Amino acid sequence: MIPPTFDYVRPASVEEAVRGLAEGGEEAKVLAGGQSLLPLLRLRLAFPELVVDVGRVAELRGVREDGDTLVIGALTTHHDVLRDPLVRRYAGLLAAATATVADPAVRHRGTLGGSLAHADPAGDLPAVALALDAELVAAGPGGRRTVPARDFFVDYLQSALAPDELLVEIRVPKAEGWGFHYEKFHRVAQAWAVVGVAALVRRDDGRVAEARIGLTNMGATPLRAAAAEAALAGAGDGQAVARAAEAAAEGTRPTRDTSASPEYREHLARVLTRRAVLAAAGMG
Amino acid sequence: MTSTTEREVGRARPRKEDAHLITGQTNWTDNIQAGGLLYMAFLRSPLAHARIERIDVAPALQRPGVVAAFTGADLADGLGSMPCVWPVTEDIVMPAHPPVAADEVRYAGDPVAVVVARDRYAAADALEAIEVDYEPLPPVLDLEGALAEDAPLVHADKGTNRCYVWPLRTGEEFDAVRERAEVTLKRRYHQQRLIANAMEPRAVAVTPVAASGEYTLYSSTQVPHIARLLLAGVTGIPENKLRVVAPDVGGGFGSKLQVYGEEAVALDVARRLGRPVKWTESRSEGYLATHQGRGMIQDVEIAATREGRLLGLKVDLLADMGAYLMLITPGTPLLGAFMYPGIYKMDSYEFTCTGVFTTRTPTDAYRGAGRPEATFAIERIMDDLAAELGVDPMELRRRNWIRHEEFPYTTVAGLTYDSGHYEAATDRALALFGYDELRAEQRKRAEGQDAVRLGIGVSTYTEMCGLAPSRVLRDLRYAAGGWEAASIRMLPTGKVEVVTGTSPHGQGHVTSWSQIAADVLGVPFEDVEVVHGDTRAAPQGMDTYGSRSLVVGGSAVHHAAVKVVEKARKVAAHLLEASEQDLDFADGVFSVKGSPEARRTIQEVAFATFTSHDLPEGLEPTINAEHLLDPDTFSYPHGTHLCAVEVDTETGQVRIRSYVCVDDVGRVVNPMIVEGQVHGGLAQGIAQALYEEAVYDDEGNLVSGTMADYLVPSAADLPDFVTDRTQTPATSNPLGVKGVGEAGTIASTPAVVNAVVDALRPLGVGDVRMPCTPERIWQAVREARS
Amino acid sequence: MTHISVKVDGTTYEDEVEPRLLLVHYLRDRLGLTGTPVGCDTSNCGACTVDLDGESVKSCAVLAVQADGGEVTTVQGLARDGEWTALQRAFHERHALQCGYCTPGMIMAARDLLRDNPRPTPEEVRQGLEGNLCRCTGYQNIVRAVLAASGQEVTA
């Protein structure tokens, strides 16, 4: 229950934050909303020497439009994301999934950027970022770079961010007119997803023209269900969707824990993908 | 004129306890501050079983803010073995249980050292500096494997992992009954290990007065009186120098019906340092260090006729003691021993319980303690038998239960149930539930292709409360009695103090005891205060557990109040210059028969007694009274619980669609409190059925080791309950009450599991192990289909 | 040590704190505001819920330094001149607490819920309180109390 000691800085700007991270090196940790970091500290599962609290960096908050792209500041809280009119209009999937993250008090503090940078495959939002084909913008000593979501999640709790990089914004292509659904399967309301399926579906003439499926907790990183996506193209009815969803677990490597075996997770991925796609496509 | 006091008993009084709790003006043990207070933290074994080869606390002493650190060996001269007060058989194996392990650790979480520091942060940091070398020993985890000849031993010096074998044989020989039975069923059920999760983690604080050798121990405990007695023994502090206080206590559910090593260590450290000390467990620490509940394999065999008349029941239990015997570890499974036949008539009953040591956190009481296991086994196998016979599960129960005109009824297990009306409770429950309609819907849906199946679960339970007649406890080899104490102090201003030996931690005794006393004394509810949970203020008591408090402690309050009235009558008669026989007493007023203007309120009598200016010759100047009540027998609440679930056969997900229960807990003192007890009990019983389990891996590590992994359900996970009551008063106490603290927990677990199995039975599924997780249900369906 | 200035229940406090100090420990151990309890170490139970700058937060999941310059309301700051809030009254009248340990957090979470959604359905109350665990009540009377405090008719 007691965090270990650490040094603490509270930069006022991105530049200051990056400088702080550079000085702290491997032993520095970014504190955004703290809803992932503080539990790790309390259980003494993390021992950073320096905590860089970016909570006061105002430029990291908020949602804006940039042409066909929605730009969400990394420090925007879950609470703000799921109420944001732009997010609801152009990235409804993100709002829907964010509503299932933890509980209201945690959503008041937890941030989109923090959730993604934490790179927990059991978190709901990494799979959503994948399905949305989001891009993540990192600021480092050498300036900014953009990383596609598919390259961002490197391994379990490991992102593509360098130790001296800070995630500053999430760029989401507007997906107006796409159907969406986040199907979260968990044992109690507060529990992590056993499996989650983020589905984004573009319809054309009553058929699935294009589907993008992100999978939560089906491996060391969030995953796209590529085989199912391919099989879904052209699906015109529930049976076709069901057949395509059978491929949802291909290429996944789910773990075993107290909630599920890998085999059961694969089964759930198939069932939930079918349900999520049907709901997203309005075929349910 | 006398104003008529509204009868308090039976009223839904909002609680007196609430004001400080809803405003944050609380007195939890962790709130306690004292000059020079030091904080303790325990280093615990990361291994399930190991020899301590070397331990060095010296590096911890170098850390800032650290005042002292002790190993088990350091404390051995100050502390004895932690006591178990229920040696259930003559030849029970009772290993030593040092509060801090010195040579060997026997479960992950066994404490090996304690540090004492100026604040909780420094104490936590210092733990990391302690050096320990462990030599791993083989863990002992499987209950059957632990009994094998060549099994590694939890306590090598004892030569066996078998703690005890406790048999009970009543009625006809079961073998003979099995012979003539047309139908027999054998089932194995598993009671998973559970963690109580009282919302307040355990905490203890000690303030010593070194000069006089006096100690006050504050503890988040259900049992301050028992703790005082036993901690005096463990520490050698004279009992009359030790005061134990249970301040606000945030729930217990059995987990604080315990005397813990940390309490003993806190006393000893305070004695060694002459400084006040405090310790509060973190939740994850508590998962290892606070005793767990259940943990049992139940082999159950039932014999019946083809018509569904029960002939006999045979029960073989393997009960997981864990690594050590704590306060009542061995006796806990036996609290159910007499309850397996439930509400049914039969000719034969055989019961054997074998206690087994394992290298896991010790088990002990958890809400219901023995009785939920018994009810689960009988109610599950009744459903299985109904399926086997092809009759409706409720119909099978009707054919076998004790009819209301048969009370009092002595069961095959030898208990005499004094009162009850199973038909009435059941009829009411069926009507509220819409049983027939739901059965019709179930049939219809099973015919279709719906992946979501409807299941209906039944549980008609009884339990024994009112622990306990001391002579029965003697026969069961329990080391103490089962009485309860109450005293009533009539203050000069007319205010009343009720002193109770019960120790509430959420049950609302202050309110209910006020209602009881107000009625007998005829004083306003508001004029009564209830004193509890402090061995100095309430010196006698047996504390709170086992749904005993109202039945024994509330009845003691009633008796004490009656004594007050009788003592006051003497004084009133003198003041009114009448004979005692000529006095009426109603609504708090003594009046002379035939001349109602000649009157004295009991509160006036209290003042007159205080001044003592005009008392009868030789009369002791007090109308205060005390009563110690040793009950003659138990009480037997009962009820009918019905649960409808929807089971998604594709994912295994269960949703409770409706839950109806009709409980008969006898007369009700405060219906709002009673209903609340039922709600909470249901939530815990449902949680056992569907969500919760202390899961250990093959090395003996607790893998459901935090509240993020051990699934305590929230409001979003539970349904609205429909609750109702029937009332057949208990005949064994003056209030007619039966006890309600555990009813919901006892009844609901089998109702839910029966509903899950009922949904899946048409698919060929006959059982799902608890908790009925989605994956287990999915697996069961898959296996049945293949 | 880091300097912080925090307003808690109407009083401003200036303190030097270790950066690692949790807000809940700051409240309890430094300010003596022990009305806010600790129930877990994983942010699951919600017993420590307080208001920070107008939003419910779990005070075990906030560092005291993060609250610097902020305004905290705890359960101890709700009643005005001894007058309970509608939620406190409803919790009392509907028997929405037993041991009372979850109650401060439950009331603070319910207060946030009603601020967001003044007339919630029973289901919305249940979902809105998903981050607050109670082991005594089975939640039923808590749900009733929150509905009652919202001014809605509550049957049974």
Automatic annotation (TrEMBL), chain A:
Gene3D superfamilies reported in the protein's UniProt record: 3.30.465.10, CO dehydrogenase flavoprotein, C-terminal domain, Uridine Diphospho-n-acetylenolpyruvylglucosamine Reductase, domain 2
SMART domains assigned: CO_deh_flav_C (SM01092)
Pfam family, one: CO_deh_flav_C
Record keywords: FAD, Flavoprotein, Oxidoreductase
Domain FAD-binding PCMH-type: 1-177
Oxidoreductase recorded as keyword: yes
PANTHER family found in the cross-reference section: XANTHINE DEHYDROGENASE SUBUNIT C-RELATED (PTHR42659:SF2)
Designated name of the protein: FAD binding domain-containing protein
Organism: Streptomyces actuosus
From TrEMBL, chain B:
UniProt KW keywords: Molybdenum, Oxidoreductase
Tree of life domain: Bacteria
Protein name per its UniProtKB record: Molybdopterin-dependent oxidoreductase
Pfam families, per the entry: Ald_Xan_dh_C, MoCoBD_1, MoCoBD_2
Domain Aldehyde oxidase/xanthine dehydrogenase a/b hammerhead stretches: 23-138
Keyword Iron belongs to the record: no
Organism: Streptomyces actuosus
Record keyword Oxidoreductase present: yes
SUPFAM superfamilies recorded: CO dehydrogenase molybdoprotein N-domain-like, Molybdenum cofactor-binding domain
Signal peptide range: none
Membrane-spanning residues: none
SMART domains assigned to the protein according to its UniProt record, in alphabetical order: Ald_Xan_dh_C
Lineage of the species this protein comes from: Bacteria, Bacillati, Actinomycetota, Actinomycetes, Kitasatosporales
TrEMBL record, chain C:
Gene3D superfamilies per record: 3.10.20.30, [2Fe-2S]-binding domain
UniProt keyword Iron-sulfur present: yes
Keywords: 2Fe-2S, Iron, Iron-sulfur, Metal-binding, Oxidoreductase
All copies of domain 2Fe-2S ferredoxin-type, residue ranges: 2-78
Name the UniProt record assigns to this protein: (2Fe-2S)-binding protein
